[in-house]
Amino acid sequence: MAPLRREYDVIVAGGGNAGLCAAIKSAEEGLRVLLVERGGPVDRGGNTKYTRDIRYAHDRADGYTTGPYTEEEFLRDLLSVTGGETDLDLARLVIERSHDIPGFMVKHGVRLQRAYRGALHLSRTNAFFLGGGRGLLNAYYRSAEELGVDILYNSSVEDLRISGDTFEEALISTPGGVVSIRGRAFIAASGGFEANIEWLKRYWGDAAENFIIRGSRYNDGKLLRILIERGAQETGDPRGMHAVAVDARSPRYDGGIVTRVDSIPFGIVVNIYGKRFYDEGEDLWPKRYAIWGRLIAEQPGQIAYSIFDSKVLGLFIPPAYPPIEAGSIGELGRKIGVDPLALERTISEYNSSVVCKRFDPGELDECSTRGLIPPKSHWALKIDSPPFYAYPLRPGITFTYLGVRVDRRGRVAMRGGGFYRNVFAAGEIMMGNILSRGYLGGLGLTIGSVFGWISGEGAAEV
Ligand SMILES: Cc1cc2nc3c(=O)[nH]c(=O)nc-3n(C[C@H](O)[C@H](O)[C@H](O)COP(=O)(O)OP(=O)(O)OC[C@H]3O[C@@H](n4cnc5c(N)ncnc54)[C@H](O)[C@@H]3O)c2cc1C
Fold first, then answer.
1. C-beta separation of 213 from 395 below 8 A
2. CB distance 171 to 13 below 8 Å
3. Those residues with Cβ within 8 angstroms of residue 10's Cβ, 6 or more apart along the chain or in another chain
4. Which of these, 45, 37, 8, lies nearest to 448 by C-alpha position?
5. Which numbered atom of ligand 1 lies nearest the CA of 132?
6. Is the CB of 39 inside a 6 Å radius of any atom of ligand 1?
7. 133 CA to middle of ligand 1, Å?
8. pLDDT band for position 308 (50/70/90)?
9. Comparing C-alpha atoms, which of 275, 253, 246, 228 is closest to residue 402?
10. For all residues of the chain together, what is the average pLDDT?
11. 123-131 average pLDDT score
């Protein structure tokens, strides 16, 4: 990289999908851009490095998807997962501009996969990219460098000087020391605060000590906190988080996609007392997997166990860790530290309530429990074929919803009214404008891409 300037047209904080889209767009607009990324060249790219697919509106099958996904259908899906709690204007804007996503990705070197017919439930609505998130990041970083973006690795935006409604300077810690760099515009794209256990404790108490962070340890919300302290307006539920069930043996941070446990619909889930606490077969797994993190977070010790037998092995994607195996339910209870008698009782009650007319793992079938509380509404098979298995589960947080409010130009709103003249936000740090709860697979990258471009365009107008 050329020697660092004292002043740039735009400083972008965060080198994940949103920051890169913002940096690339700004550079295409002819701006001198500094991208500040907390990770190094190997672990750069925050949560983006764990992604695989992106959602966008398209009027016909385009080679990357198997059929049309209209703006109307996209909006309906969004309204259904958020229960209508979204900034409708911003949601429409994201959906409208999402048409341009494949074109932008391909132009900047991302290799989109040809659609898989029938293999994935997202194949009509989402495009998958080769090499996953790391492939996407490698392509975007290369493109940004070719466009002349200066990239500062292992560096973190530590503070901002804002006067009234105008950003002036960023304080950046770099491997060579702390530097202060002026900018005509500033784009915050530093993700959520999911890796900040102390912050999570404010809403979850000590339970947060038992949470596992699926993504980057760098997303600690430092910049989000600075913006809020400087007077930016918050949006999104502070307690809101997207959390799935992950294997309790996963690393505290950066386990990525392979730690998720998908066996839940095919057995039962018990807490540390050997008791069931929710309907494991409520709906199709893609619609329900994201409720389990929160359910487990509300259990004693924030731990639970997915229990199943040999009949269902092979029906779900196995996570990175092997299940705990035993020849009897009692032995399984002893191995996982759950009272064997309590576990035997729960399974015997469950088994005797199962009525199975037609088992089909691919759809809402006719296998359920009768008279059991809580019920299991589908895929209820008796757990009676040894060996028996268990996965220990913990809440695995994907991202938090709290962010800063923005307008159609990506400008950050001020608590006292109005918008900062030259402070923009893109990606997870503003996702709460559109997603206050619920989630649609592949939408994280959609919002980051569109607001990345919008922020870059906005920076050019400052
Ligand atoms: C396991 C997993 C799988 C996922 N799969 C998908 C998927 O397939 N499709 C999808 O759309 N979404 C997916 N998501 C969600 C998706 O990762 C996010 O929505 C998306 O990455 C957000 O992009 P972003 O640029 O806002 O944040 P990030 O990609 O997290 O980037 C934020 C960047 O900011 C940097 N940073 C943090 N603080 C500072 C600071 N103070 N100064 C400078 N830099 C800083 C970080 O190092 C990081 O590089 C997944 C998430 C996880 C955890």
1. no
2. no
3. 22, 23, 26, 31, 32, 33, 34, 183, 184, 185, 186, 187, 456, 459
4. 45
5. 8
6. yes
7. 10
8. very high
9. 228
10. 96
11. 94
CB of 51 within 6 A of ligand 1: the answer is yes
Ligand 1 neighbourhood includes 250 CB (under 6 angstroms): no
Report the nearest atom of ligand 1 relative to the CA of 18: 25
- C-alpha 116/C-alpha 235 separation (Å) is 37
Report pLDDT digits (tens) over 358-399: 999 989 999 999 999 999 999 999 999 999 999 999 999 999
**pTM of the entire structure?**
0.95
Distance 376 CA to ligand 1 centre (A): 35
| Cα–ligand 1 centroid distance for 398 (angstroms) | 9
Nearest CA to ligand 1 atom 42: 156
Percent over 90 (pLDDT), the chain: 91
Q: What are phi and psi of 296, to 5 degrees?
A: -75, -35
Q: Cα–Cα distance between 310 and 306 in angstroms, integer?
A: 13
What average pLDDT does the segment 271-298 reach? 93
Q: CA–CA separation, 339 vs 334, rounded Å?
A: 7
Tokens coding 315: 């029906």
Phi, psi of 99 (to 5 degrees): -55, -35
